[in-house]
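So, who can interpret the following?
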Amino acid sequence: MSEVSPGTTAVNKRSADRARVTTAMRDSLRWSLRMGIVLAVLIGLWHLAVEISGVHPVVLPPPTLVAETLISRIPLFASSMWSTIQTLIYGFLIGSIAGALAAFIVYYSKRARWALYPYLVALFVIPKAVYIPLLILWIGAGRSYQVIIAALFAFFPLTDNTLKGLQGVDRDLIDMGRLLEASEWTIFTRLQLPAISPYMVAGMKVGLSEAFVGAVLAELLVPATGIGARIMEAVGPSNTEFILAGILVIAVVGIITYLGMEMIERRMLFWHYE
C-alpha cells in the first residue's frame, strides 16, 4: 500500500482551503446579486406607488427625495451614528460580561441559583423599555442611562444561552475528568468551555442586535446626540424623508454589525464549522 507524503497532504489541504474560499466568495456574490435585485424592485415599486397614488410627501416621500436627504446630510448621520455605536459598544461589553458572569454564578452555586434565578427570570420577562423611566429618575438622561439600557438588552441573551450551554455539557465527561484527577480549571477549559462556546457566541450575536435596539430606543425618548434623537427631532417639522433616511442608516449599520459578528463567530469557532 502506498503512503501519502506530508507534502501531498499539505497540497491537498491548501487546495481544499482554496476551494472553500472560492465557494464562499461565489455564494456571497450570488447573495449580494439577489439582494440587489430585490432592493431595486422594492425601490421601483415604492416610486411607482408614490407616483400613482399622488400621496403627499409628508406621508410617503419618493425614494429620490430620501436619497437626496441621505446624501446631503451624510456628515450629520455619520456623527450621530458614531455616538450610537459608542453607546452600543459600551452597553454590549458591559451586558455581555455581566450576563456571562451571572450564568456562571447561577450554574456553579446552588445557593445563588435559588436566590438569583427567579429574579433573573422576572427581569427577563419584563419588557426592557419599562426600565427607562426609572433609570431616568435615578441617573438622569445622559450617556450612562443609554449605556445601561443597551447593557440590559445585551445581558439576557448571553445569560440564557451560556446557562443552557453549561447545562448541556455531558456530565459523564465531567465525571471522567474528575476520575482522572483533573483540576476544575482543566475541566472547565478543556471540556466545558469548548462545549459552551457555540452557545455563548450565539448569545453574543443576539445580544449585539438587542443592544443596538436598546441604544436607539434610549435615544428616541430623551434628548441625545445619537441617531435616534436625530430621528425624533425630525418628527416635529414632519421631515419624513429624514426619518426614512435615518431608518435606512440604522438598517445598514445593523446588517454590518450582524455580518461582522457572523465573521467573528466563524473565526472563533472554526472547528465547529469544519
